[in-house]
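Researcher: Re-running this chain for the archive, since the previous output was lost when a drive failed. Same request as before.
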Amino acid sequence: MTDLPPDLPRLRTLETWLALTLDQVRAAIDAAEQRETERQRGQEARPTPPDWLLELGLNRDSPPVQVHAGDCWNKGKRTRGISLDEARHAISDGIKPCGACRPDTALGFLES
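Model: Regenerated structure tokens:
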């Protein structure tokens, strides 16, 4: 058995402290479960990334810069999702394909 104090006042104090500590632990568990539930809900609600990206120029008057695959690690910050047909048209219209993800190869364009 553990070393507990022999007298009633100290045992009652220990009981009170354990009850308060147990309440705090249960509150921390509830908060952790809530955070985990919210994290899972956020992952489930996250929209799927686009298959193709168009990297835009520095301002609205600038032409687009590059076409990327949707999961490209080299995409810039100014991108928007585009469809397969838009990606094909963009590359055929002269917008440069990304050299890292090579969307031109994935879209069936031959190297020149």
